[in-house]
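ARCHIVE CARD
CATEGORY: sequence design from structure
SOURCE FIELD: tokenized fold
FIELD CONTENT:
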């Protein structure tokens, strides 16, 4: 082995996201994307007239599209540990013995419920891409960044400021159009901010550790997580 040889390994080297800047995903392919998170509507609880109105509005939304989007539905096990901790705090600070007993009973009921049943949280996202669109074969459930661009081996040198400036010209009008059209359907949509995007992808790539280790600041995840220095 050569003297003074330095080996560096970065977690980010294995990701297809080059940067997250100004609430926009900058990809290593030179593309970009914004992500909207939407609310949901319980269609079955609507009256027949309301259902017909929603179907008509949704058809109008689809017919209004002149650009690509991808709809992603993500289900994950709900983490209610903070809720249980809050109950414990309220329980300890409750001077009324009868009320404290009711809180204890409720907390134990919730703990037993999540032990016996898997409580799932479902999130809805709409991705608006900027770049070349191709169709990937057999895509994964949340492999949409690669699905949209299908350029896993075609990474280029990325000028993130240039990509951001060029992409926003197209992405912002599309984002505003979708938010307006979703409003007609009765669905609220909002763009994920930088902190929310970092948290989302941290959870996607680290589903196990994300349950215990929460993100504090984005700065902690911008630096390489693995960077060994080997000299001989």
């Amino acid at each position: 082995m050569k003297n003074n040889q330095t080996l560096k390994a970065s977690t980010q080297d294995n990701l297809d996201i080059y940067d997250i800047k100004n609430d926009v995903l900058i990809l290593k392919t030179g593309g970009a994307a914004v992500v909207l998170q939407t609310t949901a509507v319980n269609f079955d609880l609507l009256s027949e007239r309301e259902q017909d109105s929603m179907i008509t509005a949704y058809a109008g939304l689809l017919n209004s599209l002149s650009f690509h989007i991808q709809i992603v539905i993500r289900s994950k096990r709900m983490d209610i540990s903070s809720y249980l901790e809050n109950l414990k705090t309220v329980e300890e600070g409750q001077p009324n013995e009868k009320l404290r007993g009711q809180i204890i009973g409720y907390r134990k009921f919730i703990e037993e419920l999540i032990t016996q049943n898997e409580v799932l949280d479902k999130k809805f996202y709409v991705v608006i891409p900027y770049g070349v669109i191709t169709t990937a074969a057999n895509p994964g459930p949340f492999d949409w960044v690669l699905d949209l661009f299908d350029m896993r081996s075609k990474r280029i040198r990325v000028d993130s400021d240039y990509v951001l400036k060029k992409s926003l010209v197209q992405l912002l009008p599309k984002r505003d159009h979708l938010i307006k059209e979703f409003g007609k359907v009765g669905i609220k949509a909002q763009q994920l901010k930088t902190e929310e995007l970092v948290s989302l992808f941290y959870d996607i790539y680290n589903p196990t550790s994300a349950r215990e280790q929460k993100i504090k600041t984005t700065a902690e995840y911008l630096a390489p997580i693995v960077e060994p220095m080997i000299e001989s």
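CARD ANNOTATION: Residues 16-75+122-203 form one domain. Confidence is low (pLDDT under 50) at residues 132-137, 146-153, 224-232.
SHELF: design records, drawer C
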